[in-house]
From TrEMBL:
Residues 78-281 form the Alpha/beta hydrolase fold-3 domain. This is Alpha/beta hydrolase. Pfam families: Abhydrolase_3. Keywords: Hydrolase. It comes from the Bacteria. Transmembrane segments: none annotated. One of its GO terms (molecular function) is hydrolase activity.
Amino acid sequence: MTDNATTWRVAAELESAVPLFPVADLSDPIAARGALADLAAAAPAPDTAGMEIEDRSVPARPDVPVRIYRPDRAHGVLVWLHGGGFVMGDLETEHPWAVRVAQGSGAVVISVGYRRAPEDPFPAALDDAYAVMAWAAEHAGELGAGSDRVAVGGHAAGAGIAAAVALRARDRQGPPIGFQLLNQPQLDDSQQTWSARNFIDTPFMTHDKVAASWRHYLDTAPASVYAAPSRADDLSGLPPAYVATAEFDPNRDEAIEYALNLLRAGVPVELHQWAGTFHGSQAVLSADVSRRQIAELGAVLRRGLDA
């Protein structure tokens, strides 16, 4: 599994928070969901003053639950996909982060409650996300976005689904997507990168946890480019992208390689590798690096929507 002994040491301001993150185990999806929900509930609640928040369903087969965040003087739309290894996470666990992205960017954020594995393996989550993307592109004006420019983004597995939405939209000549916001994306089922092989005991996310998430997501289906975007040979014609990685994250190197492949295909990319961080550590709001990560997500989305 590993090439050699690997050591890691997170930034000093994050060290005390490491024990607060749940044990990295997806063998029991229900228990894992509960652990993530507990972690999210312990985070400070964001200030939603001046923001309109609405729960609704997007028509599809089946309908997709979404939560829409409309800040004052909103500009542009972001379809946002939560993390959780394709197994965990929902509209509630993602609420603090959707609020902060909306506040930081000024965009209307549509948080998607996509179906999760193992109950609903690939392509259920992608189908849900794509349906919301098409709906958002069609209804951007009436969402009060101030423009019809629409972006797609997400965190971790959600960022991988976001990348797949962009690929499917390109290949199907589907809804126009202006920008990709990919935070610590999970893109490669093969797990052959250096970080995937060597990070076996890093906080919250490990080699084994990533492997389990792919097993749940793929079930018996072969991995296609729409399940694992790193498998795509042709990345030309995709929207400009922002890719952020955490230093001590098994998914780190596949995200960096994906960003490089986008660049090689002529796609504008901004890549930021955050030193001393681990997967999901931006939840530690007491740390300056976490606050800078969250602020940057909003700032780059604003620039991407204005480009």
